[in-house]
Amino acid sequence: VQLVIESGGGLVQAGGSLTLSCAGSGRSFSHYAAGWFRQAPGKEREFVATIGWGAGTTYYGANVKGRFSISRDNDEDTVYLHMNGLKPEDTAVYYCAIRVTPYSSGSTYSEDYAVWGQGTQVTVSS
After folding, report:
1. What is the distance between the alpha carbons of residues 47 and 36, in angstroms, rounded to a whole number?
2. Which end of the chain is more exposed for a tag (fewer CB within 10 A), N or C?
3. pLDDT tens for residues 79-116?
C-alpha cells in the first residue's frame, strides 16, 4: 500500500453520525492492518480504532468504544470509520494509517504505521 486518502469529514450536530472512508492504493491492501487516529488543536494525536488484516479483529479507544465502529472492504481497498452519537469533543482531524508489517493485527501505537493520509476534518457542533 503506497497511499491512502481519507474522505467523508464535515460538520455535524451533536448526536449525529458520519462515516469516514480511507481508500488505499497499491497492491495487497487486504494484507495490512489499518487504524484511525485523530488530533484536536493543541492536543496530541489520539488512537481511535484499528482493524487487523484480512477479515480483521477490531479494537477501539476508550473515548469512542460503543459509538464508533471500524470495518473494511478489501474488494474496494477501503477502510471505514462509522461514527455515531458524535460529541463536540470528537472534533478533530481524523487520519487513516496502514501498518508497516503485513499479516499483522491492529495496533494502538502510531509508530507501528507507515503510510498516513492527509487527514479529514470532523467538526461536531453543540
Report:
1. 7
2. C
3. 999 999 999 999 999 999 999 899 999 999 999 999 99
